From TrEMBL:
Belongs to the short-chain dehydrogenases/reductases (SDR) family. InterPro entries: NAD(P)-bd_dom_sf, Sc_DH/Rdtase_CS, SDR_fam, Sec_Metab_Biosynth_SDR. Residues 1-17 have a biased composition (Pro residues). PANTHER family: 7-ALPHA-HYDROXYSTEROID DEHYDROGENASE, SHORT CHAIN DEHYDROGENASE_REDUCTASE FAMILY (AFU_ORTHOLOGUE AFUA_5G12480). SUPFAM superfamilies: NAD(P)-binding Rossmann-fold domains. This is Uncharacterized protein. GO terms for molecular function: oxidoreductase activity. Keywords: NADP, Oxidoreductase. The keyword Oxidoreductase applies. It comes from the Eukaryota. It holds the Pfam family adh_short.
C-alpha cells in the first residue's frame, strides 16, 4: 500500500475577462434590411419588381419605384404592399433619359423623406434586334450588303439604347447623390462605433452578362450598352468612395422579364408556366432560368451589413450561361 499522498487538485482556471469587442450580429441581423430606404428605377416589372418584392419582404421601410409607365408602377406597388401588409412601396413617374424628370423625382423624394440608403439603377431597354449573318453563306457580298443595311437602319435605335442603358445609369446616380449622402447620416449609414449599422449608402447598377459576350444574342446595341453600363458602375465606385459611399454592379443572365422572353423562347423555354423555368443545359449549364430567390439573395447581401465591405464589385448571376459564349475576357 502506497503511503504517497495524492497530488493536489489543479487550481481552477481563471474566468475569462469580459470581452471589450462588439459581439458579431446574429446571422438573422447580418442580412437584415429592416428600416432601409431604397429607390429602384424600372421597379415595376421584371428584375426590378423582383428586387422590390425582396426588399419589401425583408423589412425595408420605404421603396420608391420609378419608371415611365405610371399605371404599371401603381399596380406593382398595390400588389407588393398587399403582400407585405403595409404601404412601403411608393410609385413615382420618372424618365431616366430626362434631366428635368430626374431632378424633379429627386426633389419629390427629398420633400417626402429627405434621403435614401440605396439606389438601384435597373431601368433599361432591349434596343434594336438584328439577326446574325449566316455562318456558311457562299454569297458573301450579298450577306455583307444585307447585314450592312440592317445595321444602318438601327442608327436611331442605338442612340436610344445608349441614352437609356448608359446615360440613364450615370445621370440617375448624379441626380440622387445628395439623397444618398443624407442616407449616410441616418442610422443605416452611421458607423457602428457611433451606434449605427455601418452600412454606407450605395448605388447598385443592374447590368447584364450581355456586356461580356461577343455574339450578343440580346442585340448588338444592347450588348455594347451593357458593357458600358458595367463600366459606369465601376467608375461610380471610385467616384463615390470619396464621399463615403459605395457602388457595385450585378450582371444577371436569364431572369423573367419582358426583354428575356424572346431569348428564352428561342432556347426552347417558356415563361408562362410559373415556378422554376427549365432551359437546355447547353444554354444555361444549371438547366434553368434564374428565379426570384436567386435575385433576392444578391440584393439582400449587397444591401445589408453582410455586404457592407463590398465596393466596385461586378457580380455575375447567370447559372453559368456566360461560359457557353465566346466572352470578352475582361
Amino acid at each position: 500500500m502506497s503511503t504517497t499522498s495524492p497530488p493536489p487538485a489543479p487550481a481552477p482556471a481563471p474566468a475569462p475577462a469580459p470581452s471589450t469587442t462588439t459581439a458579431p450580429d446574429p446571422i438573422s441581423q447580418l442580412f437584415s434590411v429592416q428600416g432601409l430606404v431604397a429607390a429602384i428605377t424600372g421597379g415595376g416589372t421584371g428584375i426590378g419588381l423582383l428586387l422590390t418584392r425582396a426588399l419589401a419582404l425583408a423589412g425595408a421601410s420605404r421603396i420608391y419605384i420609378l419608371g415611365r409607365r405610371l399605371p404599371v408602377l401603381q399596380s406593382a406597388a398595390t400588389s407588393v404592399n398587399a403582400l407585405v401588409g403595409r404601404n412601403v412601396v411608393i410609385p413615382l413617374y420618372c424618365d431616366i433619359t430626362s434631366r428635368i424628370s430626374l431632378e424633379s423625382t429627386a426633389s419629390v423624394i427629398s420633400s417626402d423623406l429627405g434621403y435614401i440608403n440605396l439606389l438601384i439603377c435597373n431601368a433599361g431597354i432591349g434596343g434594336p434586334q438584328v439577326p446574325l449573318p449566316p455562318d456558311n453563306n457562299n454569297n458573301i457580298a450579298d450577306t455583307i450588303e444585307t447585314f450592312q443595311k440592317q445595321q444602318m437602319d438601327t442608327f436611331n435605335g442605338w442612340e436610344e439604347t445608349m441614352r437609356a442603358n448608359v446615360n440613364g445609369v450615370w445621370f440617375t446616380a448624379m441626380a440622387f447623390l445628395g439623397l444618398l449622402q443624407k442616407g449616410n447620416e441616418t442610422e443605416w449609414g452611421r458607423g457602428e462605433e457611433k451606434g449605427g449599422r455601418g452600412v454606407s449608402s450605395q448605388v447598385v447598377v443592374v447590368s447584364s452578362i450581355a456586356g461580356f459576350n461577343k455574339k450578343a444574342p440580346g442585340g448588338w446595341a444592347y450588348g455594347a450598352s451593357k458593357a458600358a453600363a458595367t463600366h459606369v458602375g465601376k467608375m461610380l465606385s471610385g467616384l463615390v468612395t470619396g464621399w463615403g459611399m459605395r457602388a457595385n454592379v450585378v450582371c444577371p443572365g436569364l431572369f423573367p422579364s419582358e426583354m428575356a422572353a424572346p431569348i428564352v423562347e428561342a432556347a426552347g423555354g417558356s415563361m408562362n408556366g410559373g415556378g422554376l423555368i427549365p432551359l437546355d443545359r447547353g444554354v444555361v449549364p444549371l438547366g434553368r432560368m434564374g428565379d426570384e430567390r436567386d435575385m433576392a439573395g444578391q440584393i439582400l447581401y449587397l444591401a445589408s451589413r453582410a455586404g457592407a465591405y463590398c465596393n466596385g464589385n461586378v457580380v455575375l448571376v447567370d447559372g453559368g450561361r456566360l461560359g457557353t459564349f465566346p466572352s470578352a475576357g475582361y
